[in-house]
Task: structure prediction
Amino acid sequence: MALKGRLEDFGITQLLNLINLARKTGTLYLQNTASDKSSYLCFREGKLIYATMEGMEDNLPVILQRNGVFTADQVRMIQSNMPGKPDRDIAQVLITSGRLQPQQVIESVRSHVLDVVYQVFSWYDGTFRFEPSKLTVKGKITTSIALENVIMEGSRRLKEWERLQDELPDLDVALKFAERPTTPLRDINLSVEEWRVISFINPRNTIRQIAQNNNMGELQIRKIVYSLIQAGVVEVVRPPRPVAAPGRGKAGEREAGGESAKMRRPDVKRGIVQRLIGRIREL
Amino acid sequence: MQTLKIVVTGPFSSGKTELIQSVSEIDVVSTDRKITREAERIKHQTTVAMDFGRITIDEDLILYLFGTPGQKRFDFMWEILSEGMLGFIVLVDSTRPETFREARRILDTFRSYSPVPYIVAANKQDLEDAWPPGDLRIVLRIEPDVKVVPCVALDKESVKNVLLELLYSILELMDEE
Result:
């Protein structure tokens, strides 16, 4: 069953996060309204293995040229000698003949895939469709890129202040380390600024206080916190709700509504719940 | 005579009225009105106050099902409806990812009103475009100990299963304590 929707409602970061956490295999097709371009990204078990974009040549010789491995003349020669050959065959011939190192292929394909994915991060409008189990990579050389760092870097590149504000509207909430982080900290590359924020994470410090302590502006702190949340490193701790006004319920019954709020048993006897179950089964 | 209450909440047009109608023994007392706002013309009528359904358990116990109005401008009523609830169900239209963020907001709000047990019901699972419950768990950031149950609000057996799963969650919580 294909997942589909609008990028305005469900952004690239959220999509990659879903694919990563659900370890999905398949192809994500994207259509951007603003640029009128399309792209697709392929994933195997939650890892990004290939990506391409309309208007961006993705045959291996051109990818190698873009990465400084070959000159334009060399690319023309390779293409005229091996017209229509799939990338895998071209790579094999070039490696066997000693004109190319396997590592250069790996790095160039990886660089191409990352170029594409970081460009689509700026797509805020359009449509998406995820086709599970379908991989459009025939003849292509694939790579395997963990999405946590892609999400971190892509989030770093997010320019739209409004979007960040929408995702993290309140700076007067605190952060805590995720109880079950999706990625060990040692596997994530953090910038100096991100480490500075990490060092202040404590349920007693609000995001605003962390920003003030680090002399960071709202935009910068929002970017950093958003990327850390999306990478599953930290979670927001919502402050307890203020006591309700008289006449609007029993304030004493309230507890923090945040992620960590524990559910409490309702004030009924077990036998009553079992009577409810019995009756509903009979309906 | 003892009465108990379960609240059914969720974004606009997620299927709350249909869910209550499927199991209520009375015609659901629903204050539906014709929709006038262009943006909300997904359906012809919408609930502007609340839905109200009833299941008689036995001669001295009645379960009421309350559906919250889905539109944002009526969210002042949510807190009143949540008073004394046994638990709540967050109903999500699995085919409309544009409502997922709103579903999360509603879930957080209800949790802050009362820390009673709740489950998420992934509605419209009979439709081809429905997101699977496992994906909804991820995008809505639902904790592992909270159930995300597949649901078809028009199907009585499916709704019964949703209610039962909520009640089982309540029993499990009682066993833990």
Q: What stands out?
A: Chain B has five helices and eight strands. Chain B has one domain: 2-176.
